[in-house]
Amino acid sequence: MNSCDVLFVHGIVVTMDDGRRILEDGAVAVSGNRIVAVDETAKLEHWQAARRVDCRGQAIIPGLIDCHNHLFQAAGRGLGDGMALWQWLGEFMLPLAANISPHEALTAVRLGALEALSCGTTTIIDNHYAPADVDTTLAVAAALRDIGLRGVVARGMFGPFTDVARDNGLSPALFQHSTVDEIAAMRACMEQWQDERISIWPAPINVIYNDQELVRQSVALAGEYGVKWHTHCSEAAIDPTIYQQAYGLRPFTWMERNGLLDQHATFAHAIWLDDEEVEIVARRRCGIAHNPMSNEYLASGAMRLGLLNEAGASIGIGADGAAGHSFDMFQIMKQVIYVQRLATLDPVATNAWDAFALATRGGAQIAGVDAGQLAVGKLADVVVVSLARPALAPCFDIIASLVYAGSGRDVSLTMVDGKIVYENGQLATADGEEIMAEARTACRQLVTRLQIPVRGSGGASYPLPENGVNP
């Protein structure tokens, strides 16, 4: 008789396997950290399981994958409203990042990780850059490991203060280290950290205003350790022009000519690519983390998703920290569709299946994890979603219902690496209420210390309330 550790039964199983199978009364069996069977419930009923999870009235889906986030930015969520990207960075986020303490950053990271797990996210690429000293970077990696996530700490490096950064109004506060020192610290992080679920990658913070040598050496370091690397590029419409004026080439053209692009390169945003850059990204099999909610919030633009897909680029989606406000990947999936349809005025520019694939299979490819599908042999990252809310009834097309009407609030269970880490509103690995309480206190102290204005409707400022909750 077959046996397993956990058997999910009687759910609508969205496999996202190569056949795109949907099992109306399906079951998923897990042993250790791998999926060992996926079939109709009737065919797996006889399996012996240490725990059986009845999923009637629920969907069983692959864990969602967030390909670009800044979890520490949860500390400033809801602030900095009404700014375009460069102003948002220069006047709000980078000053916050330059002054946040390790304790404040870690409380915000844990809060963001709690939110992610509660919303069905099992893997995150966390582009952490504040503070980015070795000890704090390792502490962030440990926090993600201990709470139960899978993913990456992409350590953000600012390096020397470049002319581009200075000329475009960025503060020198974060540009305090030479390229040599940044790479040495990065190497120390990678040498000292060993874990199967959490990796550390080099992450020059933004190709546009990073020192070019820092980018080169980051890529070399990633190759030396056999990992990917991560960065921002071409997020604002002006970015490629700024770069071309400074260096004579558009950013992706420069990276291509310097041999820096292959399947190990992963980019957040990549909105403002010309036709040549689209072809370069696809030919070199680079990964792109599309952040539609952030792009809408900062009015950065709409990524050329259709052309990149047609060219064969590897694409996932991300929440992008405080610029998206919510780490709920269900919200982000629907924005993938709405942004493209509005930008192209084409109702078939993309659809629910495409968006769901970006959040699962596409994300797995970029993060380099053997997940994103409910299929035999894949990592056991499994999410159960309740279909009980009125918004999800009737449910004719499960993918459309989940993407257009679903929410992280509907997640009833999250399994990562074969372990149930979140169930029925409770985190199994830590005290969720304590995480939220610590974050409220620490983040309020940060915002008060930095005198960051809280703005109400119409732009009027008001004092931070005593309880840390906006009126």
Automatic annotation (TrEMBL):
Keywords: Hydrolase
Entries under SUPFAM superfamilies matching the protein: Composite domain of metallo-dependent hydrolases (SSF51338), Metallo-dependent hydrolases (SSF51556)
Listed InterPro entries: Amidohydro-rel, Metal-dep_hydrolase_composite, Metal_Hydrolase, MTA/SAH_deaminase
Hydrolase as UniProt keyword: yes
Amidohydrolase-related domain location: 60-421
Keyword Hydrolase: yes
Family note: Belongs to the metallo-dependent hydrolases superfamily. ATZ/TRZ family.
Record protein name field: Amidohydrolase family protein
